[in-house]
Amino acid sequence: MKILLVDDSPSATLVMSARLRRFCFDVVTAADGLAAVDAFVAHAPDLVLMDLEMPGINGLQATQRIRAEEVRRGWSWTPIIFLTASDRDDNLVTAIDAGADDFIPKSVAEPVLLAKMKAMNRVAALRRSLHAANARLQRLAELDGLTGLANRRSLDARAAEQWRLAQQASQPLGVIMFDIDHFKRYNDLAGHLGGDDCLRQVAAAIGAEARRQPGALAARYGGEEFIVVAPGLGAAALAALGRRVVDAVFALALPHPGNPPSARVTVSAGGASSAGGDANVGALIERADRALYAAKSGGRNRYIAAE
């Protein structure tokens, strides 16, 4: 457990730090309220032990600022315990009203201090477990359940952010739309379970090629359509990526009895780069979609660049 210890007294800090480190806890110190807020943001401790009376901003004010930082940054609640010179009841009332969770006197007996720290360590372990679980749920919420690629919601958010970053850096942003050729016919012949397996294998091929490009995002756009958003790619590099994906899907050699003359599953692709002066990422995707339509109209199993 990482503990932020805040006290303006060097001797008190030295004593309490030594006691806590004997319990094998990681201790970070701050000498006043302002430093405490900065250290809290920098180290994200599992527990804060805060001296109540300090020059500048006191423990009450520092606690209020820490709580505000938690809200502003979207961080979860962190236990804060006040360190006081006495164990009067009104100290507990003051601590709770200020946003703290408990108080202990600085002269607290060793067994009591150890017991409280054990309890806080259990709380810290639970918080870490909940954070990991929430992170897993968040990742799952961003993925398409069938293919494992990013889903449409995740795509919309990340594409908008990539567009913003590309505009700030005056760098191109590439978008490629993919569509499985004659997929309805494949579904009719192979059934929905066969269609799902086809989608997964094509998605895996698209994702593998996208991962070779730093920062690229592969997503399921809807149905049998996929998209790759690739920052930093102008028209030539984008075309190379698009053709690699088309070739990779063809190389899967998935039988498609309803797709002559190749008799295997193929994709058509259309790409557009923001070097074309698009107004927003939506307009860029629309240009890529029109290029995709041109690829399908031109014979399928190919990449076409937007004009």
Radius of gyration: 29 Å
The computed structural class is alpha/beta
Helix tally equals 9
Unreliable spans are none
Strand arrangement within the widest β-sheet reads 2-1-3-4-5
Number of strands: 10
CATH class of the largest domain: Alpha Beta
| Full CATH superfamily name of the largest domain | Reverse transcriptase/Diguanylate cyclase domain
CATH architecture of the largest domain: 2-Layer Sandwich
**Helicity, as a percent range:** 40-55%
Q: Name the average pLDDT.
A: 90
CATH topology of the largest domain: Alpha-Beta Plaits
Beta percentage is 15-25%
Major sheet description? 5 strands, parallel
In angstroms, what separates the terminal alpha carbons? 58 Å
Count up the domains.
2
Shape: elongated
Topology as H/E string? EHEHEHEHEHHEHEEHEHE
